[in-house]
């Protein structure tokens, strides 16, 4: 006969509607391997505290091994009456080692400290996977930057032509952003590297069990300092969800550029066939679906974070059942990113840049006007005046429908006495780029250094 984990004080079983509401196996079953690892570690501290004999310990561990194999093969799965992953696995253990032995494992632990620990284990594992998938996108950006060193493009602010920059500089800007997301995952891991196992329901255990031993067994470097905090806090989940959302938002900014760049009007890039899609009606279409899905899924990840924070807001200590709602949003965030990132890095790696077009558009839209102003500043003209003078050059060009470099020496002299013929030296893309040579600037010499630094960071990531 089936006994629930908590039926003792109840005369009857739960109503079917409650049981249906309460159930979480359809999403928490993915924690089963971690639950079993936790059970192994817990069995060992029960033995160390003389609450299991040596024989009982080996029986328990053998039962857990069989259970794990059956979970892996699918021979054991949660059934209708199992409330959550912990309930199902206790049933599975009891089916394998009998109620006498199987019924001893639960001593000194609660699903509250279990789930808090297993969730950390799961997220730590996926933090590593995600860090590596984000690094793959960085790698693709770095390779493209390397391949196109020296190619100029129109740098934009407000989406308007601003100043010429190197394509590599632009691509590396995205790389540095994503490297910080990788850093965030690592920082998060350091903070989350503490095991709540042994916190019990909220107050700790009276059975002489060693939380540090369990922590070490489960790959944590320490146990939590406070059992209430251990069972009730979910900032580790929210922070993880934030890093996922931030990463998706950062990816969406690249995605939006790819969508624009692939239009007829921009024609900056051509997407590889393997990373573009067609239309069921318009035979000519080649659509940037990978980038669009990336852009779209960012909204979903922001929603996951917002939903989670809303669940956590104003929850009193310690454990509340609301906390069961912490898993689905973050599982969704993990699944979504693990699906998206490989496609995204493939798309970036195979982008083909129309470098002639990028180069020819780089100086358009009077993008060298700042160079005139800064040239004047180097002649000791106050910037306020220099800005006015360069602006007047632009106005003159607009009136005549020409570019800055089409102005004659006489035109320049007529605009301002300060504008000698030498100003022409900065009216080229190469001159403009080369002049921005301070640390972090777009000068080729700096971008080459930057590329090497990004590679180094990537290797260390
Ligand atoms: N399934 C729950 C969760 O995910 C853990 C169970 C705790 N239940 C309880 N009644 N204390 O948070």
From TrEMBL:
One BP term from GO: L-arginine biosynthetic process via ornithine
Sorted UniProt keywords: Amino-acid biosynthesis, Arginine biosynthesis, Cytoplasm, Lyase
Cellular component GO terms, alphabetical: cytosol
Catalysed conversion reaction: 2-(N(omega)-L-arginino)succinate = fumarate + L-arginine
Residue ranges annotated for the Fumarate lyase N-terminal domain, each copy included: 8-303
Localisation: Cytoplasm
GO terms for MF: argininosuccinate lyase activity
Pathway connected to this protein: Amino-acid biosynthesis; L-arginine biosynthesis; L-arginine from L-ornithine and carbamoyl phosphate: step 3/3
UniProt entry tagged with the keyword Nucleotide-binding: no
Main location: cytoplasm
EC numbers on record: 4.3.2.1
Entry-linked InterPro entries: Arg_succ_lyase_C (IPR029419), Argininosuccinate_lyase (IPR009049), Fumarase/histidase_N (IPR024083), Fumarate_lyase_CS (IPR020557), Fumarate_lyase_fam (IPR000362), Fumarate_lyase_N (IPR022761), L-Aspartase-like (IPR008948)
Argininosuccinate lyase C-terminal domain: residues covered: 366-433
Signal peptide: none
Keyword Mitochondrion: no
The family this protein is said to belong to: Belongs to the lyase 1 family. Argininosuccinate lyase subfamily.
Name assigned to this protein: Argininosuccinate lyase
Organism encoding this protein: Intrasporangium chromatireducens Q5-1
Name of the gene this protein is made from: argH
């Amino acid at each position: 006969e089936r006994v629930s984990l908590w039926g003792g004080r109840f005369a009857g079983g739960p109503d079917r509607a409650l049981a249906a509401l309460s159930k979480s196996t359809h999403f928490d079953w993915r924690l089963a391997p971690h639950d079993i690892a936790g059970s192994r570690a817990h069995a060992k501290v029960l033995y160390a505290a003389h609450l299991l004999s040596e024989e009982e310990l080996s029986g328990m561990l053998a039962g857990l091994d069989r259970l794990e194999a059956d979970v892996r093969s699918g021979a054991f799965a949660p059934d209708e009456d199992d409330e959550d992953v912990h309930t199902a696995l206790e049933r599975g253990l009891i089916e394998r080692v009998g109620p006498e032995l199987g019924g001893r494992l639960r001593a000194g632990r609660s699903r509250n400290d279990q789930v808090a620990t297993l969730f950390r284990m799961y997220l730590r594992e996926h933090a590593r996977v995600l860090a590596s998938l984000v690094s793959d996108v960085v790698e693709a950006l770095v390779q493209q930057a390397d391949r196109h060193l020296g190619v100029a493009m129109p740098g934009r602010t407000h989406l308007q032509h601003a100043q010429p920059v190197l394509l590599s500089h632009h691509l590396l800007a995205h790389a540095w952003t994503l490297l910080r997301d990788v850093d965030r995952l690592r920082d998060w891991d350091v903070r989350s590297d503490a095991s709540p196992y042994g916190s019990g329901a909220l107050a700790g255990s009276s059975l002489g069990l060693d939380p540090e031993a369990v922590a070490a067994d489960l790959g944590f470097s320490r146990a939590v300092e406070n059992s209430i905090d251990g069972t009730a806090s979910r900032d580790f989940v929210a922070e993880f969800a934030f890093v996922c959302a931030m990463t998706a938002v950062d990816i969406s900014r690249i995605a939006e550029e790819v969508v624009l760049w692939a239009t007829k009007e921009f024609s900056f890039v051509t997407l590889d066939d393997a990373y573009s899609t067609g239309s069921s009606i318009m035979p000519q279409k080649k659509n940037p679906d990978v980038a669009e899905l990336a852009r779209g899924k960012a909204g979903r990840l922001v929603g996951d974070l917002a939903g989670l924070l809303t669940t956590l807001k104003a929850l009193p200590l310690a454990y509340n059942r609301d906390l069961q709602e912490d898993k689905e949003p973050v599982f969704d965030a993990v699944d979504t990113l693990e699906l998206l990132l490989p496609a995204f890095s493939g798309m970036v790696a195979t982008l083909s840049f129309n470098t002639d077009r990028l180069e020819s558009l780089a100086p358009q839209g009077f993008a060298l006007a700042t160079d005139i102003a800064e040239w004047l500043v180097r002649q000791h003209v106050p910037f306020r005046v220099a800005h006015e003078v360069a602006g007047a050059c632009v106005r003159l060009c607009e009136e005549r429908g020409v570019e800055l470099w089409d102005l004659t020496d006489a035109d320049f002299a007529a605009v301002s006495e300060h504008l000698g013929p030498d100003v022409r030296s900065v009216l080229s893309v190469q001159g403009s780029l080369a002049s921005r040579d301070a640390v972090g600037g777009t000068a080729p010499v700096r971008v080459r250094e930057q590329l090497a630094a990004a590679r180094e960071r990537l290797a260390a990531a």
